[in-house]
Write a structure and sequence with these properties.
This protein is α+β, with helices and mostly antiparallel strands. It has 2 domains: 32 residues, no CATH class; 90 residues, GMP Synthetase, Chain A, domain 3, CATH 3.30.300.20. It contains 3 helices and 5 strands. A 3-stranded mixed beta sheet has the order 3-4-5. A two-stranded antiparallel sheet has the order 1-2. The longest helix has 23 residues. This is OsmC-like protein.
Length: 143
Amino acid sequence: MDPRWHQALYRTEGINSEGLEGHAYVPDGLNVKTSSPLNNHPGTNPEQLLSLSLSTCLEATLEAIERERQLSHTSEVRVQVAFIGARAHYEFLVNAQIKVAGVDFETAKSMTAEAERRCCVSQLLAGSKNYTVETVKEFSQSK
């Protein structure tokens, strides 16, 4: 095991023993009904969980950057996730759109690049041809 595990600031565990149509949970915490995005069964799917994880991480990072720069909090992050492929080779396409209303567009682009480098979830996705981050003046509709 990587020795950095012993110096973790926080650790958690997610458990799923039922598959896509079931439940996933964090011991003594969150319990989520899960379902495939390809049916109309109630539940949250992996695409939604990924979009929430990335948008929360990027937004929290942007909030820290705004605070460090003594700016008002005006950033917003929207993450779109698409499920593509065919049997035995499925993939996610992930696109994060970042809007920082309180600054000029060049500053917003700089803040986006910094957030992309600092956000832990973004670091996990970095280098994937399926992951993009863009600074926007206005949010576009789902791709």
